[in-house]
Amino acid sequence: MHRHIHKFNQLCSVTLAAILAFSLPLGTWAQKAKPSKSTKLTEQQKVIHLLDRLSFGPRPGEVERVAQMGWEKYLNEQLYPDKVTDEIVGQKLLPLETLTMSNEQIAKVYEPPPQVIQQLREKFMPQAAATNAGEMKAEGKPQAPVGDVLNDPVKRREYAKALADLGYKPRQIPVTELQTAKILRAVYSERQLQEVLTDFWFNHFNIYAQKGADRVLLTSYERDAIRPNVFGKFEDLLLATAKSPAMLFYLDNWLSTAPNAKLPDFNQLRQMRQNRNPNIEVRRGNPGNFGNAKRELRRQEKRAMKSEPEMEKKTEEKMAQQPVNGKRTRGINENYAREIMELHTLGVDGGYSQKDVQEVARCFTGWTLRQPRQGGGFHFAPFMHDNGEKIVLGNKIPAGGGQQDGEAVIKILAKHPATAKFIATKLARKFVADNPSLSLVDRLAQSFLKTDGDLRAVYKTLFTAPEFWAVEAYRAKIKTPFEMTVSAVRALGADTNGTQPFHRWIQQMGEGLYLAQPPTGYADKAENWVNTGALLERMNFAIALSSNRIGGSRVNFAPQLKAAKPNEIADYFIKNILHGNISPQTRATLDKTLNDATITNNNGTDVAKIAGLILGSPEFQRQ
Amino acid sequence: MNRRYFLKNSGIAFAGLGVAMNSPSFLARTLAQTKASIPSGGRRKTLIVIFQRGAMDSLNAVVPYGESSYYQLRPNIAVARPKNDGQPNNPAALELDSFFALNPGLASFKPIYDAGQLAVVHAVGSHDTTRSHFDAQDYLEAGTPGVKSTTDGWLNRYLQAKPDAKASPFRAVAMGPNLPRTLQGKAPSLAMNNLNEFAIRGAGGGQSSAVVQGGFEAMYDQSVNEALRGTGRETFDAVKLLKRINPSQYQAAPEAIYPRGKYGDSLKQIAQLIKSDIGLEVAFTDIGGWDTHANQGTGQGQLANRLLEFSQGISALHTDLKDRRDDVVILTMTEFGRTAKENGNRGTDHGHASCMFVLGGNVNGGKVLGKWPGLQSNQLYEGRDLAITTDFRDVFAEVALRHLSATNLNIVFPGYQMKSSNFRGIIRS
Asked: Residue B221 and residue B223: Cα distance in Å, rounded?
């Protein structure tokens, strides 16, 4: 078998770069990478393990490259991604124009006002008009594909053209571009840990792209709130999400108003307008937004000019969200207050009470948005704020704090030991095992508390922990659908443009990107990903990818492979895709399948099918 | 099914057998599994759940025409009173009794109601105060209003609470790409987009596909990872059972006209699964487009059109399953109702109570069940919405108990105090 491998490496060194990479000297790999009976990972296994967990799976030749440079150096590089050049993915992302746009810019181009949509829908498809009416429509149908509900292709084209004539681009584009970007980054970025962590933290602070205005707000959310903070302080990350329009909208805090709030009348509004600093919340590095502040003021004025009853009705709709004691009030909305403790910081058993939820909700009243559908930014509205004293988890927050009340809550939560433990558990589960040991969780929590929530320090503790390097952790995690599909592309050295034909497979397996409806995000344990339909789709994806039947994705196998015997090809893929991680029984099973006449035909051996069998195998589902 | 059948028809290539031979314990398990684990389940009681995502306006679906407040609250969008009150642009509602009438979009429900096989439960919903689609759907599917940390859905807990060693892989099926919240959990449940695509695809067809499928199956059967091995087995059991039973051979009855599109297709395939006796116990599908904030129409228009597709699908299903109605209950749900008063855009905003439709041979039909809370301003919930007089769990629990013979309802609905006196008498005892 050993000899075969060498023969193959010679055979294949001709064509593709990807295949070339396979042919680096690594003849001893297949043997050494077999699961060892000893209690320690071999050096080679360590490299594979590190690439399995810190990246979206090894690319051809990468195991060898990292082995050569030393895994410690690789780990260090990944922890300081700014030092890693990443030009290829940068080039690939360039055509995705919404990635660099502000919320307001996106809204302007991609989000026609509801009246426009309603008019057009009534014109082209009267009976479908209801389905898209109203602010909250999109969240009502979680399985809907991003985009449109019009069924008639002719009408749909007319509708799209009418929108285009008015200067609007299809509203699903910002989300589909985000999906594409996420796939491209996972496949091509050299800063793999950064991508893994961005995915992890996005999911921790999950937002559903189909909830109304969030399709406009999500681009900035990931770019400006999540990504810059994944190696920083947890408190900064938490604050950035708390103030992000996407989160304020998703968890309804923008509607939350003190029960006794009195709406400003026309004159007060005018006064507010005059007092307001025109430099309202501007996205970092985007001076273009200053121009919009003026427009925002005009809009505000226009709103104030609206007739009294209309204004009242509008406000009433918003205020009537969350009544207290069965009596309608100018609603406190507890949604965000609850989730920031349950999901973002303390955890469900983190020791907070319903009273704490109410107090936190009071603190965050007034953290709101102007016109989220138009991409309006964070804004503190004093008249919505409950200015009384609050007690949060035993801490007194004095009356009159205004916007600082919410900031005080962020500080209390970010430093709380329950938060340290909750974050430690989630990180250990993500990077080590579904049920991590308590001692590991404790050490990570200590690291979190000692460093004031310095996430990079916590990662360092994690990646040097004996539990991380334990034999039990090796290949103990099941890949999520996203990880599986991306790691398959990487393992084959294939190419993808990350567009919808590829994304649809991920969605079919139940992990549509940015499409987790609940604030809990997608599950981080295997049991949720291994269900029948989804497993079948993994196998079908494997065959489709290796047979070049996914639009925008392409794999080129060396033509020489066709001339080889099926078992030799299997050897080759087992070495290069599974890195030798296959049990003798599975191998024997595979060999029997390969002996079937249908695997070899007049064209030579069906290389794609063998690659598909390996990618769809249970071994490739693990990492 | 015997071993011979297994070898002949299972699609396992010789590969799987060869390895099994080397491993006696494995072989024993495989054969035992083969006998026990691909039971078709046979004919059994089935619950079909249809989720109307977006919050249906129950007051314009099942119109309380006997209440004058209804017409005061909705001067522009009220459905005309039955019989004499219709206009060309607002056809009259269809009388159910002296108080309620159906939106003309639901016309196909009328004969089923008259035959006593369709009941409406009105003023039903979740007592939780949320008016968020997102939370309310979550609560309805999890079956635990107000509790967001529930990890599984109530339909899945029903399956868990009533373990069945002979359960078919098709015991619980959701038509769609994802397993809906209500079927997520420990009990095996199947999500499928399409019956005809639930197979190893694109491997060249015929013997070639069989070899690839056999290869996958044998490899999964070897996996050291329990979850992958177990689910792999369930998957291939389902694939093989589907192939063997071939539900697609059961064509819809000619008089059952399903609406075109995803929703109608899903219902048609559910009927095929039932007719094939594949062991289906719980089926799920959904239909969107109910969030009618503007221009929702009256006896015609947007809402009426949604109701048309919705009800024609269900009526077709009811017709299609005419020989099996005693075995089947169809239950609809929506996350909440809409404001009693129309808004300034001739639509309705997020409200509180809504209504459910229940169909089946053993349904105590021909009635609008539940207590009517009234539409006068002091009767409205928070002064604006139809109040809830029936907890949605009273409906779910009754159907689960009396139709599916559910056990351990305390597991299915944790925190819910079940009292049969709260049941509305939906299922004939």
From this structure: 6
